[in-house]
Amino acid sequence: MRHFLFTISVIAATLLTALAVCQADKKAPATNAATQPAAAAAQRTEPKPGPQIEKLLHAFEGTWSIHETLAPDSTLPNGATGEGRIVWRPGPGGFSVIEDYQSRQGDRQVSGLGVFWWDDSAGGYRTIWCDSTNPGGCISFKNVARWGGAQLVLAEDYEVNGKKFTFKEVFGDITSTGFTQTLYGGESGKELKVDQTIRATR
Questions:
Q1: 32 CB-side CA count, 13 A
Q2: Beta sheet of 178-187, edge-to-edge order
Q3: Pseudo-torsion of CA 47, 51, 53, 57, nearest 10°?
Q4: CATH, range 51-201
């Protein structure tokens, strides 16, 4: 009799365990189905780079060989020419654009790093430029760079010893195989002179 009762108890326990497992299996898909839409919604709402960043990358992304011509100045009395390369690539998350510059100018090696990002409220690209010839480290431009037709233009006024000067940088002749980067400088209100010309090719 005891053996019979024991057998019945084991069978009952086995049936209850099987029933619990079956119910858990039935509930599992419902739980997964409930979490899937939330995960999909989270993926859909992740921010993406805007069209202005895409436009900048479309124009410049990639590796370019460069040939430079530098006008005479206090550091290069006879001027100079340079050879090197520029790499344009997306910044973190694709929300900015990074310019990595390397050039041999005469007997000096020059390196630089630029970062561009779109400021919607200002209607242009904010820019920071750092290079190995600047003891101050980096320049954070007050003005924004803007597209003017097929050219990208940045102009900035600054003051030295009470005198006002203007710096201007123009990216032009932009094609899939090349572009020209021209840097101008001079006293504000007067005709600006070309300080440096960079011709880039793939």
A1: 6
A2: 138-140, 124-131, 108-119, 97-105, 80-90, 62-70, 193-201, 178-187, 163-172, 151-160, 146-148
A3: 120
A4: 2.40.128.20
Which residue shows structure tokens 């929300």?
95
Three-class DSSP category at 64? strand
% of residues, the chain, pLDDT over 70:
79
Q: Where are the domains of the chain?
A: 1-46, 51-201
CA 81 to chain centre: 29
The set of residues, in sequence order, having a beta carbon less than 8 Å from that of 188 and lying 6+ positions away, is: 157, 164, 165, 166
Q: What is the pTM of this model?
A: 0.77
Token pair, residue 160, equals 């030295």
Residue-wise pLDDT tens digits, 100-109: 999 999 889 9
Amino acid code (one letter) for 12? A
